[in-house]
Amino acid sequence: MTTKILPINEQSLNQAAAIIRSGGLVAFPTETVYGLGADALSPQAVKKIFEAKGRPGDNPLIVHISSHENLPQIVREVPREAETLLRRFAPGPLTLVLKRNYNIPNEVTAGLETVGVRIPSHPAARAFINACGRPIAAPSANLSGSPSPTSAQHVLADLSGRIEIILDGGPCSVGVESTVLSLTGPEPMLLRPGGVTLEQLKSVLPNVQVHKSVLNQGMVDKAASPGMKYKHYSPRARVVIAHEASTARQVYFQALSAGVDAWLLAPDAQLEGFSGLSAASLCSREHPEEAAQRLFALLREADELGKQLVIALWNSQTGIGLSVTNRLLRASGFTILLPHGEIEAGGKIISY
């Protein structure tokens, strides 16, 4: 199978819709990351998503719709809190976990009684869903475990030969997956941080809680949302997190001494002390949201450059920073550098 990247126009949307209606897969842009879409009402089509990605079957999918009017097709009830959130944040990067309608296959929900649903704000995503005439189940359009794709070329790098077409909508404006909020328990529960921040959610629902898995490893037996259970977003290079510039510098030079090609990622404000080192900017002083927009592309670039170790100098849990921290924790296998330790990278043990 030859995978084609197509510009978005009436012809390509009709072609993509025909593939979906025949039970196939299409990669499409959203404001968060590129999605790998299938007919959410077809168990056979949804199974193809898991096959193409190599995705574990117990990792549920999010259903994408183009309008609030489509919600009754997906969920049994829309609680008042959901209506309030949708008025404020939809269309946009917010997924709500609600009680599923039983026409949604188990393959979508991983057998759970709940389903995640969202209305993307990207006009091409909504045009694609409308052309298909049915809800679209879609995880990120990458191989399972690798950094999520924020461009059509990222999708092609992972899924070439596995899907027919990729609709090219340019780079994603948010850059990390949607916020996932469950409204099925006694209190609203943030399952995955994303483009709608915790602070924004609390401005509407002050009692929002944060699931332990957002910042901690091994806290989930059965995932109610993507991004809760498995190692995700990982390049081939080893990823570690440094909270202090002195630790990042020490590990960087010890890695070089051991013959390990290291790369430092940090905000501009902290990069100023690392002149001359192999490094890249996560964000400017004025625009911390750039860290979310750039993160996955930088992790992919690390592999393109042949880097063996990525040291992310990052320690933020406010605003979009919580989302970046969550993705780095998953990408690194929750490896935070503590003073005086050792790590493995590039087949070498690095003591610092």
Written account of the structure:
This protein has helices at residues 10-21, 43-53, 71-74, 80-89, 106-109, 123-132, 152-159, 198-204, 245-257, 268-271, 290-304, 321-331, and strands at 4-7, 26-28, 35-39, 62-64, 94-99, 114-118, 136-138, 165-168, 179-182, 189-192, 209-210, 238-242, 262-266, 279-281, 309-313, 342-345, 348-351. The chain is α/β, with parallel strands linked by helices. It folds into 2 domains: 4-214, Alpha-Beta Complex (DHBP synthase); 238-351, Rossmann fold (3-Layer(aba) Sandwich). It has an 11-stranded mixed sheet, with helices on both faces. A hairpin with a 6-residue loop joins β2 and β3 (35-39). α1 (10-21) packs across α6. The chain starts with a strand and ends with a strand. The model has no long low-confidence stretch (mean pLDDT 95).
Distance between the termini: 48 Å
Task: Provide the domain count.
Answer: 2
Strand content: 15-25%
CATH homology-level superfamily of the largest domain: DHBP synthase
Structural class: alpha/beta
Fraction of helical residues: 25-40%
Enumerate the strands of the largest sheet in spatial order, edge to edge or round the barrel.
1-8-2-3-7-4-6-5-9-10-11
CATH class of the largest domain: Alpha Beta
Biggest sheet architecture: 11 strands, mixed
List the helices and strands in order.
Answer: EHEEHEHHEHEHEHEEEHEEHEHEHEHEE
Mean pLDDT: 95
CATH-scheme architecture of the largest domain: Alpha-Beta Complex
Low-confidence sequence ranges: none
CATH fold-level label of the largest domain = DHBP synthase
Shape summary: globular
